[in-house]
Amino acid sequence: MEYSRITNIKDPLFKQMHQLMQEVFPPEEVLEFDLWKEPLEDPGIRVFVAVHEGKVVGATEYRYYEDFNVAMTDFTIIGHAGLGIGPFLANNRLEDLRELAAANGKQLTGMFAEIYDPYRVEHYEFGGVKPMDPYVRREVLSHLGYKRLDFPYVHPSWNNDGEAVTGLDLCFLPMNGEINELEIDIIVKFLKRYYTVLPNKPESWYAMIEDLEAKEKVGLLYF
């Protein structure tokens, strides 16, 4: 299996990846094909695909923030069961992020991720691929060391229509030992930076940020 980076919308592997996204994610979570041009060309956004026998069978997008020294996993797609795609993507992603942090003169602090809560959202089929099932994914993230941030999470729809997307948790994977809470400053700065690309945010998102800014720390809970 190959771990191949995509940096151009004309890359034939991107067409395969975008189709895979449409198969496994709900429509509001998939950015339109043409709107991927700038993100793919952005050096700070890293999009990699797992290529098996010439076919895209998995993908991951993530980014590293030098000033925060944290990463964000935008998505992970496993297109088929039984190929070891999940560990392949996770291991290569972590190695890449550690190299980026080292080049920044630091050791990676941690990584954010969003995950659907299957107890609140049960109707997403995720292309019928069992490793993408929310119950399975939460267990995998838990085993990797992720914890759920203890606040009601909402994010703007990637359709940029001002709609709120709920039914997810924001999680964090600490890299430097066991911690049970996270500073508000890093959470708020991250969320504001991450969603700068979406100007049409719902009022509930701003309310969430306001509530967070009134606190000092947020607990990290097991799933």
SSE pattern, N- to C-terminal: EHHEEEHEHEEEEEHHE
Mean pLDDT: 90
**What oligomerization state is this entry in?**
single chain
* Termini separation: 31 Å
Q: Number of helical segments?
A: 6
Structure described in brief:
With 223 residues, the chain is α+β, with helices and mostly antiparallel strands. Helices cover 31% and strands 27% of the residues.
What does this structure look like?
The protein is α+β, with helices and mostly antiparallel strands. It has one domain (60-221). Helices cover 31% and strands 27% of the residues. The protein is built from six helices and eleven strands. The protein has helices at 12-24, 37-41, 85-103, 134-144, 184-194, 203-213; strands spanning 2-5, 45-52, 55-65, 70-78, 110-116, 147-149, 155-156, 164-165, 168-174, 181-183, 217-221. The strands form two sheets. Strands 1-2-3-4-5-9-6-11-10 form a nine-stranded mixed β-sheet, sandwiched between helices. The protein is globular and about 50 Å long. The two termini are 31 Å apart. The model has no long low-confidence stretch (mean pLDDT 90).
Task: List the keywords.
alpha+beta; 9-stranded mixed sheet; 6 helices
Write the layout of secondary structure elements.
Blueprint: E1 2-5, H1 12-24, H2 37-41, E2 45-52, E3 55-65, E4 70-78, H3 85-103, E5 110-116, H4 134-144, E6 147-149, E7 155-156, E8 164-165, E9 168-174, E10 181-183, H5 184-194, H6 203-213, E11 217-221
Parallel strand pairs: 4-5
Antiparallel strand pairs: 1-2, 2-3, 3-4, 5-9, 6-9, 6-11, 7-8, 10-11
